[in-house]
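Lab notebook, bench 4. The sequencing result for the construct came back, and we need a structural model before the next group meeting so we can plan mutations. Quick request posted to the team channel:

Model the 3D structure of this chain.
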Amino acid sequence: MSLLEVTDLTVKHGGLVALDAVSLAVEAGGIVGLIGPNGAGKTTFIDALTGFTPAHRGHVAFGGADLTRAAPHARSRAGLVRTFQSLELFDDLTVQDNLLVAAQTPTLWSTLTDALWPKPHDSTETRRVLDLLDLGDVADRLPTELSNGQRHVVALGRALVSSPQLVLLDEPAAGLDPAETAELAGLLRRLPATGTTVLVVDHDMALIMGVCDRVHVLDFGRVIASGTPSEVRADPAVIAAYLGTSTS
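Done. Here's the predicted structure in token form:
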């Protein structure tokens, strides 16, 4: 059984079909890419998978459990975690504290007791992620003091501190220069060995083709190709989607 199995996932915005019966699977232990032209439905797919956008039809199974109707926080606690294009960092907290906040899953009772009797929280996982992503040297700095590339890595780290089974990365290389993108690629390659499978959405073809084991291609809300990077790169439907077709 695949770690993630999506069947006939359909999302509509009024009369617009943003996702049209999308079906795909993600095996555990690798890096999977999702690409497509602007407006193809990539971010809508991540939003629907994580419960931020309701699906009109379809089925989402994760780790053998049915998450089709689960709330976003329930999907996250099940091990299905995402990042956002806007990063959503806490700029008034240090890098380490940004990760500590994400590492906690507070209940109403724990929130009350922390307010009345503050106590230190276990930072073992936070330190592990800081080391994994080479953020140790900037752990005590504010995100506003970091480069754009480092801010993107902090956002990745915040998604990893809960030890997810699958992390969904929405445009993690957006705005990065080639050197920063190459550094990000190196970090992504480390993740499967730590037990985290990766599904990455990005426009940077060099990143996708360089790190992914398998790639799915969306166009107008439908999957038009799936395969290895070399297979997808040579697929006529993919070439037509990105470059268009000539007409007489």
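The CA atoms of residues 187 and 202 lie 15 Å apart.
Will bring this to the meeting.
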